[in-house]
NAD(P)/FAD-dependent oxidoreductase
Amino acid sequence: MDMTAGQNGGSGNGNRGGDGRYDVVVIGGGAGGLNAALVLARARRRVAVVDAGEPRNAPAARMQGFLSRDGMPPAALLEVGRSEVAAYGVDLIDGSVDEVLQEPREGGGPGGFSVGLAGGAVLRGRHVLLATGLRDELPGLPGVREQWGKDVLFCPYCHGYELRDRPIGVLGTHPGAVGHALLLRQWSADIVLFAHTLEPSEDERARLAARGVRVEEGEVKRLAVEDGTVRGVELADGRVVPREAAFVFPRMVPRDGMLAGLGCARDEMGWPATDRAGRTSVPGVWAVGNAADPRAQVVTAAGMGAAAAFALNLDLVDEDVERALLAPVGQG
């Protein structure tokens, strides 16, 4: 069925066109999706944002490195952003998207997309912008998931300053752990790399030693957690190395399963391939933020959303011109 604006948590503004379509359906209501929606709405485009309410940074108490928003709780940024876009008539729809399908071109004009929501509702849009982020697949060591976003962390630029000069552990659960430990040395002189299942090369060991990063051999058994706080890293031989925080390198997976039927090209890492504006290989489909780049922070995602919106609106202008040229005189 076709979804009526205002259902399922929508804002009720009903800003679709006369053909029942939005100009853009944004999938994902984080910084990237909301900033794209803001720019597009200010360009007087009909926009819907579908959001499942599962932001990647939800476990974090604060976000850092965002000029004028440094230290703001992530949820507060989203609350402000949702209010801003709603004021411009954007339809905010609480839900998740199961699939996006391409619609056929009609009468020589541009086609569009049907966006199927969980539960059966369907939105129609001329373009689709994916801003769903990624999911972090964490190692199965006890304590990691429970402390994730608190004192088990990934991003040094997000959390390193708050942990400056404190004892930090890096878990060797990923090939990038050596580089992670060397990077964290910028914030603290007390860094320990727990080799776990890694076998650092001779060159890597030399680099770690040169920077004063200690390597603890042996597999990690668990994180030692007391009163909801990491106190150390327990090894399989029973030793506990005192630490106040642990960094892990998760396996990052884009949340892009809803695009599976469109055949979007992927880069060498398996992410949707985009140009600098966020265009995928499928005309009318865009991807921004962590859905396209695992390195993007909140401020980066917001900028990517704005850049995509500028380019997307120009594409819509071209489509509007083509449609007008095909229309009978006086009806363009």
User: Anything to note?
Assistant: The chain has seven helices and 17 strands. The helical segments are 31-42, 74-87, 144-147, 156-159, 177-184, 202-210, 298-326. The two ends are 29 Å apart (CA to CA). The first strand starts at residue 22 and ends at 27.
